[in-house]
Structure formats: structure tokens, C-alpha cells
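Q: Structure for this?
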Amino acid sequence: MAIDKETVKYVAHLARIELKPKELEKLSQQLQDILDFIDQLKKIDIKDIHPTSHILPINNVLREDCPRESLPSEKTLMNAPLKEGSFFVVPKIIE
Amino acid sequence: MERELYKLTAHKLIEKLNKEEITSQEALNSLKNRIKEIDSRVRAYVRVEESIKLANSPTRQLANILNGIPISIKDNICTEGLNTECCSKILEGFKPPYDATVIKKLKEAGATILEAKTNMDEFAFGSSTENSFFGPTHNPWDLECVPGGSSGGSAAAVAAEEAIFALGSDTGGSIRQPAAFCGVVGLKPTYGRVSRYGLIAFASSLDQIGPITKDVKDCAILMNVISGHDPCDSTSANIEVPDYTKSLHNDIKGIKIGIPKEYFIEGLDLEVKTIAEEAIDKLKDLGAAYKQVSLPHTEYAVPVYYIIATAEAGSNLARFDGVQYGYRNTQYLPAGRQGAIRNTQTLIDMYKQTRGEGFGEEAKRRIILGTFVLSHGYYDAYYLRALKVRTLIKQDFDEIFKECDCIVTPTSPTPAFKIGEKAADPLKMYLSDIYTISANLSGIPAISIPCGFTRKGLPIGLQILAKPFDEEMLFRVAYAYEQNTPWHTMKPKL
């Protein structure tokens, strides 16, 4: 399929990535090439084939719901670009 | 004496330490001196100057399995208090508050975790280590060539004898392809064999941590330490771990090897082909039986991979947003990190500018592709279709393993290529993983071992693949081949 610059711009927004005009130009062409390559999968008959999302036959791995040690807040916050007390600081999101 | 200890394998060092011929401090000093001597040319490590201090002591020997031997760790595996940045600007300065399970296990076995981490493609996105924020690593066999990737730093360090042994991670070949390019041993374990807890996630259904070593015995010793179930990783398998060193007995008589015809066609470098065929002949000489087999969906592995891996990466990398760790666009930091942020700036703009600047080119490409294949209207056409073809690829292997004990192929279709040669063409780069990706898609274990050199002196790797949780078969075949060939004893001149 064809992917245009508007679509790439929109998807970049969904992915929360700001692209410079030059980047958008280059990326649109590269993504088009990659999608053309990927399109060869359309040749395969996938009727009645189950999707494999995980390779091991494990599901619903449960454990006892009991309290255990976790990281103290100062360790959790030690890498924060901006913090105040025991909070991460970000631009205001509500007035 | 001390000057030369860096040349030894881990098992040789263990032997000498157990006999008290040397101390672990001497081994560590020897290695650090070697790093200081040659890493400015190889660049296998990042942040060497600030992190390699001669004064540091080895781990106190709580256990004698690894006896304080230093191990080198890829920059995407969390090491408490040591920079772990996935060689990305967006994780600049990140010091994990905890150890990955593999690191915990290594420390419990008495290993010393080297402070400098090994170089890699940013977030493991790449096959050449050129996508590192810190710049490329150079192949020790030819400094103008790439070491492969994404664990290029770990593989180059082991090859250049500036690591005793190392850990890498493998999502589509990122341990095996650099091991092949650098002439060392690299193993991707069965999915679920080794805990991924503390491995900064790329594609969660494909990622595995594994060893990169000088020989097969070191690989088995390291697998003994890092394997096993972990309650912190719900996808780790609760299956007993054998003693892998027991598989090292130089006998492969009667082993049935499958040779997939789809791996020996157009696109395979002629020299690589000849060398791989000679290696297969060697295995025959050693008593293995072989037959040609078919993996009919091989050609679809790369496109399937670039849908699934990017979809998972797009989701996993959503966490890098400038809030909890790493880089944040400076507009969103008040001067001196005091006071308020300007009200006019919104959170979404902060995310977009932080991520736009913090991620490198390949990371942005993959996140955007991954977001696209999962987006409304395209999910069925791309992602769901890829999952179905993944089933077919896995079934190809299931069929072969009904009649073969293992499969043998070249690890990569070419020897190491020149730095810059494929950097401008992502698709060309993606195709260099064509022989390694299927093992990740089907979850099976695979090892790469050195099997010869091109006329220009570049190493070539042989890949062996086995049934899920049958790493023992890999060790058995790899060890027999290694013991009867000289390749693992050859070292680059640096």
C-alpha cells in the first residue's frame, strides 16, 4: 500500500514523536520501501491459520497476592529529570 | 604473568583461581589494562574513561563458581548503580535502582560486573552497532568493518580479548550475528530459558539474554549460571535446567543434522557458502548423519519480524517520555531545575519534543512503523497477518525436528561489512539477519560458532539450531566441532 506524508505525520503524532520536515520527507520514503517489502506476505494463504503471539504454551501465570518489598520512593525517583518531594514534576495538565 | 591473564578463557581462569596460582584482583587488573590499551581503537565499551578505575576490587568471593572473574554486560541489561543507557540519548544518565535477574545470578555465582558497559545499536535496533549514540564499535579483525549488532560491543570485546566473557541480548540475531562477524561463540537460548527481568525490553515475545564467549565451554558455564525460572518474569519457563557442561563430550556419532536448502541460495556470499559447506563436511566426518530439509517459509521471516518486532518495540518504548528517567527536552526543565515550568507548555508537546530529540533515526523509524502496523485499519492487514505467518514459520521447524536433532546453517549471508556500507539503506541492513530471525520467531535455541575465515581474514560463523529447551544438543555439536577445528584459537592482531 501507499503511505503518504500526512499519514506518517499522523502516526508520528500517535507515537508522540516530533519530526522535522526533512526527517518526515526521508522517513516517508523509507517507510514506503519497507511496506512494499512487507507486502510480499500477501502472497501467503493464511486461511484457518491461528496467530502465534507467544511461543510458549503458558497463560494466566498467577502468584499469591501477598505484600513484599518494593523499591523505596527515593530510589524510584532518583533518575527523574524533575522531581519535588515524592512526586515527578510535569507541565500542568489541568487548569 | 599478570599481563597475560586477559587472554584466558573463564574456565582456565577458574582453574588457576581454584589452584590459587593467581588472584581475582590480578585477573581484573590484567583485563582493565588491556581495555586501556586497546579500547580506544575497538570502542567496544561506552563511558570507559569515567568507569574503568584500576582501584576497583573484584566481587568478594561468596561463591566459587565464577571466583570473582570479570564479566562484560551489554548496555541494555540493568546493573544497579551503573549507567545502563541502551546507548540512547533518551536514557542519558540512567542508573538502574535494581539488578536484572541475570546480574543477580552472576553476582551470586561470584562474578565481578565490569563497570563499563558494552556498546550496542540504540535499544538493540540494528545489525552493525552503528546506531549507537556513542558512535560505532570497530571489528577487531578489520577496524574498518562493523562488528555486527546489536551486541557488537560484547562480541568485539570478547574477540579483542578485552572481555573474558560477556552477555548480550538477541531479538533477531543480535548475539549470533556479531559473534559470527567477530569469530566468537554466541548463544540465543530458548525463549523463556533465561529471565528477561531487568533487560530493557525491545520486543518482548522475541528477546532473550545470552552468552558471548571465547569458546563453547565458557558458554555452557555461563548458561548454567543465568538460566532458570524467575517469578519476576512470567514468561520464563518453569523447566529444570540441566548441567550444560555435561554435554561437552566430543562425540556426535549418529546425530541427525538437517541442512535447509532455502539457506543456501541466491544472496549467500560464495565464500561464506564454501566455508559453511566445509564445516558441514567436518560434522559428517565426525560421524553425524545429515539430510537436506526444507523450511519453505524462510523468505517471509524478515517481513514478519519487522512487523512483530516493531509493533512490540513501539509499545515498549512508550515509557521513554522524559518523566521518570533519562533525557527531557530542556524547555521543560526550569532553570537550575528549580521553580515552575511555564504554563503554556503542554505535556503532549513535552513528550513529542523529548522523544523527537532523544531517539535516534532507526529508533524513530521502528517506533513509527510499529505504531502504524498496529493502528486502526491496518492491524489485520499487517500485525495479525504477521502473527499467522509466524505460526507457519514455527510449524516448518516443528516438522524438521520430527526427524532431525538439529539444523545447521551459516549464521549470516555475508562476512562483516564496512562501516557505513549499509547505513543509508535500512532494508539492506534488515536482510543481514535473514538466517537468524527465524529462531526468535519460533522461540528455539541457536548458537553461532567460528567456522573459518575469508581470504581477507574475516571470521565466518556456523549456526546450529535445536528444539525448544534442547540447548544440550547445541553444546554437544558445537563442542565436537570446536574441539576438532582450530578457529577458536585464532586471535586478531591488534
